[in-house]
Automatic annotation (TrEMBL):
Name used for this protein in its record: Chorismate-binding protein
Organism listed in the record: Actinomadura meridiana
One Pfam family named in its UniProt record: Chorismate_bind
InterPro entries assigned: ADC_synthase (IPR005801), Anth_synth_I-like (IPR019999), Chorismate_C (IPR015890)
PANTHER family per UniProt: AMINOBENZOATE/ANTHRANILATE SYNTHASE, AMINODEOXYCHORISMATE SYNTHASE COMPONENT 1
Domain Chorismate-utilising enzyme C-terminal: 70-313
Length: 333
């Protein structure tokens, strides 16, 4: 059965699936998934109600492999530092995708339910559609909209505890805040872009993040114009965004898919919605379960520390998916 689950709401009764973002300004309640590469899926459901997350079977996936091993990832970090030295970028996000064989009896609803219990997150969402299955536990808001007011809450800076955050983390966050301000400025009313929160520490299971808030009032236009001005999210690309995206395309050997894209919901009737940055997300594809992890690279980055940050971000999710709470040491893969 197709369904979407977000914020305590269960959506069933699949009525329409489209790749046209303009549908989000029409009518009804929509689940939205946009891959990092820009493939759009908007699914309208007719029955949306308060309900628990659907339960389902789950079994531990097979051994995990990674699209970039430690040596390749550290080499990528150094390449980005070289590009920063040459003035090509100021920052770029380097990611890798983990993959494991998905057992036949495992279901995305089973994994989504495990994530809600084992790693609750402010923007958790599970989507099951023909050809698309995603279980997301994102802590990061890409875009929230309430009428003409839009808000983004970029995350940059990650450590086990607040004491472990470095000056590099704050500098990284401020760079991305400037980028998000510029992106929203393309569609905002003049003078309406503001930053009510800068580099605030947020605690999440197993780690802390630096989070900022950028808010604006739309000058006109709907979701197509807003997404076109801001996608892909700045926190998972870099600055300048166009140069960072080009560099990412050179360094990363596989598509990111829903990871680092947008995952969320839109209620077109009330002109409200919330799209998360598609981090901390599993997706099922071609008999495999995939999960992405990455880090923002600046001139102050240490390649080994950045590799370990990707490990830290993935570790708890490997434990949740493993089914036994033990997890695996990613450094041994």
């Amino acid at each position: 059965m197709s369904f979407a689950y977000a914020g305590g709401l269960l959506a069933t009764g699949l009525a329409d699936v489209t790749s046209d973002v303009a549908a989000l300004d029409s009518r009804g309640w929509w689940a939205v998934v946009v891959t990092y590469e820009g493939k759009v899926t908007c699914a309208r459901f007719t029955d949306v109600r308060r309900a628990p997350h659907p339960e389902g079977m789950w079994a531990a996936p097979g051994e995990w492999s990674t699209s970039l091993d430690e040596a390749a990832y550290k080499a990528g970090v150094q390449r980005i530092r070289d590009e920063i030295a040459d003035g090509v970028v100021y920052q770029a996000n380097l990611c890798r995708v983990l993959s494991a064989k998905l057992p036949p009896r495992a279901t995305i609803e089973g994994l989504g339910a495990r994530l809600i219990r084992g790693n609750p997150a402010p923007h958790s969402m599970t989507v099951k559609l023909p050809g698309l299955e995603v279980a997301c536990a994102s802590p990061e808001l890409y875009l929230a909209r309430d009428g003409d007011v839009v808000e983004s809450r970029p995350i940059k800076g990650t450590a086990r505890t607040a004491a472990g955050l470095l000056p590099k983390d704050q500098a990284e966050n401020v760079m991305i805040v400037d980028l998000v301000r510029n992106d929203l400025g393309r569609v905002a009313a003049v003078g309406s872009v503001e930053v009510p929160g800068l580099c605030e520490v947020e605690e999440h299971p197993g780690l802390v993040h630096l989070v900022s808030t950028v808010r604006a009032r739309l000058a006109g236009g709907g979701w197509p114009k807003l997404i076109a001005a801001t996608f892909p999210p700045g926190s998972v690309t870099g600055a300048p965004k166009s140069s960072a995206v080009e560099l990412i395309g050179v360094l990363e050997p596989v598509p990111r898919g829903p990871y680092c894209g947008a995952i969320g919901w839109v209620d077109a009737d009330s002109r409200r919605g919330a799209l998360a940055v598609g981090i901390r997300s599993f997706w099922a594809e071609e008999g495999l379960l995939r999960f992405g992890t990455g880090a923002g690279i600046t001139w102050g980055s240490d390649p080994l520390r950045e590799w370990r940050e990707t490990e830290l971000k993935a570790a708890r999710f490997m434990e949740v998916a493993s089914g036994d709470g033990a997890g695996q040491d990613l450094a041994e893969r």
